[in-house]
Design a protein that fits this description.
This protein has 591 residues and is an all-alpha fold. It contains 32 helices and two strands.
Length: 591
C-alpha cells in the first residue's frame, strides 16, 4: 500500500501516464461519483459510464422499471454508507439490488458486488497491454471469436453497429490472451455482450475474469466440466426437492440438461427476455452461482403441473418457452387488491426462488461440487478419450483395446511427471509454465516401462547393479576406516551417476528401441507401405514370435530393421550405449 501511494503521488506530481490510476482519477471512472456530485433533484438517471447503453440506449422502458425512484434510493444510500471502493455493505444494500438496479448504476454495482472493481484498480494498464498484444499478434482464438461476434445479442442495436462489434472483439480477444489455457468458449460472447451494455471494456474484462475464475469455474473451458458438474448437482437437487417431477422425467426419458444447460452457460440471457435476465444477473453478481440453482428450481416448481404431463423433450421445451413469454404478466390478474395486480410473474419467480429454496447456500453448492467432482471429471475424461480414439486415422496395426491402453498409460505417466516437476518460483509445473503438454526423457522411460517388457528388464538390471554396489558401500562404511569409507562412497556415487546418465540419455532409449524392435514384423495390412517383400514374413515372424521383448533375443545372428533390411547383431551391439562411453557415441542417420 505504501509503494502504491508513493507511485500515485509521483504520477500526480510529474504528470506521467499513471496519473489516471491515482485513487481520485480511478474514482472518476465510476458513475457514483458523478451522481453524488449532482443534487437530488437532478437525479434523472443520466449515464456517465462510457458504455454501449449511453449511445444505443438500455433495454426496457425507464418508466415501467422506475428508474428515477431507484436512482434516488441509491444516492441516499451512498451518501450515508460510501460508494465504489469505500462502500459499506449493509442489509439495505442487498435489498436494493434484489428489487432491481437502475441502468445508470448497474455496471458499477456488478463490478463492485463481484469484486472486479478492486481487481481493476490493482492491475493498472493490464487490459490495454492485452489489447495491444492482440492488435500486434492475434491469438489462436481470434478466428473463432470472429465467427460469434454477429451472433451476440443481435436484437440489440449496439451490436448492429461497428462500435459494439469492435468493443466485443477487443474484450474477448484480450481475455483469451490473459487466460491462454481457457481461451474462448461459445456462450462467453453472450455474457460479455450483455455486460458491455452497462460497463466499459476494462470493467467487462475484469468482471469476466472474476466470473470465470471464481464464480463459475470451468463453465467456459474446452470440456465445460464446470457446467456439467453443476448440471449434475441441479439434477440431484431436482430429485431431492421435487421427486415426483424427477420420476416423470425419468419415465418419459426427458433430458433435463437440454433446457437447463443454457440457463447456466448464458446466465438466463438466452432464455428469458433480456429485461428479466438482467434482474437475474443483478442477483448473480451479488450472491454467486447459488441463485442460478434457485431460479432454475423455482421455474420447474411453478410449471410443475404442466411439466408432469410432458411426454417428450419437445413438449418440455414448449412449456418453458410459453412461460418465459408471460413473465411480464400479472401473477394475480383477478385480485381486487390493486397492489396485488401489480405483482408480475417474474416477481413471483423471485419470491419462490428465495422462500422455497433457502437451504441452497453457497456452502452447500461447494460441498456438492466436491462430492460430484470425481464422477464428472471421470465422465469428461472418458468422453475425451472416446473422441480421441474415434478420430485416429492410422492405428498402425493396434486394436482399439490396445490404443485405449496406450492412451491411459500415456496420460497417467504425464500426470505423475507434471506433479513431480514443480517450479519452485511459480508453483507451476514446467509444462504448465511453458503452456505445453510434453513428456521428458524420464517420463518417456516410465511410459515405455509400463508398456514393454524389454524396458522393464533394462530398468531392473540397472537397479540391481546400483543397489548391489550400494549394499557393498554400506558394509564397507560400517567396517572400514573413515578414509576408506569415503573413498568407497565416492566410487559408489560415480557408478550411480553413470547409471543415471544412461537413464537420462535419449540415445540409450533410441538404441535399445532399435535393438529390440528390429525383430518386429510390420502388420500384413501395412507391408505394402514399407515396400517389404512378402517372402520376408516367414523367417522373421517365426523368430519374432518366440519373445517380442526379451533381451536374450538380441543374441540372434541377424535381425531385420523396420525397413526390411538385414542388420547384423554386431552392428546393433556396437550401437548400444552401455557398450561404449557416452562421449564416443554420435547419432547416425541410420540409427
Amino acid at each position: 500500500l505504501k509503494s502504491m501511494v508513493e507511485e500515485q503521488q509521483f504520477a500526480k506530481t510529474h504528470h506521467t501516464a499513471l496519473a489516471r490510476y491515482t485513487l481520485k482519477a480511478f474514482c472518476k471512472t465510476c458513475a457514483s461519483e458523478h451522481l453524488l456530485a449532482q443534487s437530488d433533484s437532478a437525479a434523472s438517471g443520466d449515464v456517465y459510464a462510457d458504455c454501449l447503453g449511453k449511445t444505443f440506449g438500455f433495454p426496457g422502458d425507464p418508466t415501467t422499471q422506475k428508474e428515477k425512484p431507484k436512482t434516488k434510493y441509491w444516492i441516499k444510500y451512498m451518501r450515508e454508507y460510501g460508494r465504489n471502493l469505500t462502500v459499506i455493505r449493509r442489509a439495505e444494500f442487498d435489498r436494493l439490488i434484489r428489487v432491481g438496479l437502475p441502468n445508470c448504476l448497474r455496471g458499477e454495482i456488478w463490478e463492485l458486488s463481484s469484486g472486479a472493481m478492486h481487481l481493476r484498480f490493482q492491475n493498472r494498464g493490464v487490459y490495454e497491454k492485452h489489447v495491444n498484444d492482440y492488435l500486434d499478434h492475434p491469438g489462436p482464438c481470434a478466428e473463432e471469436i470472429e465467427k460469434d461476434l454477429n451472433r451476440s445479442l443481435p436484437e440489440y442495436a449496439g451490436y448492429q453497429a461497428p462500435e459494439g462489434i469492435d468493443a466485443l472483439r477487443r474484450v474477448l480477444n484480450a481475455y483469451s490472451l490473459r487466460d491462454a489455457e481457457l481461451g474462448y468458449c461459445q456462450a462467453m460472447n453472450i455474457v460479455a455482450s450483455t455486460m458491455l451494455i452497462f460497463m466499459t471494456e476494462e470493467q467487462v474484462f475484469w468482471t469476466l475474469s472474476v466470473m470465470c475464475d471464481r464464480m463459475v469455474p470451468g463453465y467456459y473451458s474446452p470440456s465445460m466440466y464446470g457446467a456439467s458438474l453443476d448440471q449434475s448437482i441441479f439434477q440431484s437437487l431436482v430429485e431431492e426437492t421435487m421427486p415426483s417431477l424427477a420420476r416423470s422425467f425419468k419415465r418419459h426419458d426427458i433430458q433435463l440438461s437440454i433446457a437447463c444447460l443454457p440457463w447456466f452457460l448464458t446466465l438466463f440471457v438466452n432464455s428469458m427476455p433480456l429485461v428479466y435476465a438482467l434482474r437475474v444477473l443483478d442477483c448473480f453478481f451479488l450472491e454467486g452461482p447459488k441463485i442460478l440453482f434457485q431460479i432454475g428450481l423455482a421455474i420447474l416448481k411453478i410449471n410443475g403441473g404442466a411439466l408432469l404431463e410432458a411426454a417428450d423433450d419437445g413438449t418440455f421445451m414448449y412449456i418453458l418457452k410459453e412461460y418465459y413469454g408471460t413473465l411480464g404478466d400479472s401473477a394475480y390478474p383477478d385480485s381486487k387488491n390493486a397492489r396485488a395486480r401489480q405483482v408480475t410473474r417474474f416477481h413471483e419467480l423471485l419470491y419462490v426462488a428465495y422462500s422455497d429454496f433457502p437451504r441452497i447456500t453457497h456452502a452447500r453448492i461447494e460441498e456438492l461440487r466436491r462430492s460430484h467432482q470425481l464422477r464428472i471429471v471421470h465422465s469428461v475424461e472418458e468422453f475425451s478419450k472416446r473422441t480421441f480414439l474415434r478420430n485416429v486415422i492410422d492405428a498402425s496395426g493396434f486394436t482399439k483395446e490396445q490404443l485405449s491402453l496406450l492412451y491411459d498409460r500415456y496420460y497417467s505417466v504425464l500426470f505423475y511427471s507434471r506433479s513431480h516437476q514443480r517450479d519452485g518460483a511459480t508453483g507451476l509445473t514446467k509444462s504448465e509454465s511453458d503452456e505445453k503438454i510434453l513428456l521428458d526423457v524420464i517420463g518417456f522411460a516410465r511410459f515405455m516401462y509400463e508398456i514393454s517388457s524389454w524396458m522393464r528388464v533394462q530398468i531392473k538390471e540397472a537397479k540391481e547393479r546400483t543397489q548391489s554396489h550400494r549394499n557393498v558401500d554400506m558394509a564397507d562404511i560400517r567396517n572400514a576406516a573413515v578414509a576408506q569409507a569415503n573413498g568407497e562412497k565416492a566410487k559408489g556415487d560415480d557408478i550411480t551417476k553413470e547409471v543415471k546418465a544412461s537413464l537420462g540419455n535419449p540415445g540409450w532409449f533410441i538404441t535399445s528401441l532399435f535393438r529390440y524392435t528390429s525383430r518386429i514384423v510390420p502388420p500384413k495390412s501395412r507391408v505394402s507401405l514399407y515396400d517389404v517383400d512378402s517372402e520376408l514374413d516367414m523367417p522373421v515372424s517365426a523368430s519374432a514370435s518366440a519373445d517380442l521383448g526379451s533381451p536374450e533375443s538380441a543374441d540372434a545372428k541377424s535381425t531385420l530393421s523396420p525397413d526390411g533390411r538385414s542388420v547384423a547383431s554386431a552392428d546393433i551391439k556396437s550401437a548400444t550405449l552401455r557398450d561404449a562411453p557416452q562421449s564416443d557415441i554420435e547419432p547416425t542417420s541410420r540409427s
